[in-house]
Amino acid sequence: MSLGVGDACFSYGGVPVFAGLSFVAAPGEAVAVLGANGSGKSTLLRCLVGAEVLDSGRVLFDGGVVDESSGAFRAAVASLLDDADYFPDVSVVEHLRLLAWLHGSTADVSAVLSEVGLTSAADQLPPTLSSGQRHRLGLASCFVRPRSVLVLDEPEQRLDTAGRTWLRSRLLAEKASGVAVVFASHDQELVEAVACRTVTL
Length: 201
Ligand SMILES: Nc1ncnc2c1ncn2[C@@H]1O[C@H](COP(=O)(O)OP(=O)(O)OP(=O)(O)O)[C@@H](O)[C@H]1O
Hints:
34% of the residues lie in helices and 26% in strands. The protein is α/β, with parallel strands linked by helices and 201 residues long. Residues 12, 17, 35, 37-43 line the site of adenosine-5'-triphosphate. This is ABC transporter.
């Protein structure tokens, strides 16, 4: 499925953040959203998943205007935005099992834990994780559930060198499996390796 915007405009309190913005990430494509701090990348991604509402224009999902409250939209779109939060008293592995169950997924949670390097932290509670480990939990949360669209806000943040290498290959694999990816990033290497197109705010 595809995700994008058509002629999208958004402002905070009358101050424009972006205007006249149009792009679509088709299945198997990755679109990178670029721009300086404060240019509107997170805001745009929040509009894409329905956490903010455009002033005008359209969020386009699977070729039509999106209804973010629809089950089909929520089932298709896995996202990691800048406001990820976790139950403080539910362990890492329990979070992932819960998410997989909620989405009726048969994903191998142990394999995802291993892939993101959290096997040894599986029984820890989120407040005891390092910031990089917490970010890895957020990424794992996207990969234990079915998805045809992936929306990621600076997925490289807080990852060490090995983590960034893993992320690059994981996003390429997502594309290869037909997932449409929209990601904001300040990591030029990641953008060059993964993005089919860029949108600069
Ligand atoms: N809730 C809010 N109310 C008012 N203004 C906001 C709000 N959230 C963000 N802004 C403003 O909107 C603009 C875009 O912010 P946004 O977080 O989307 O930028 P960004 O490109 O993601 O930045 P960064 O690279 O630092 O993550 C900024 O000027 C910011 O101050």
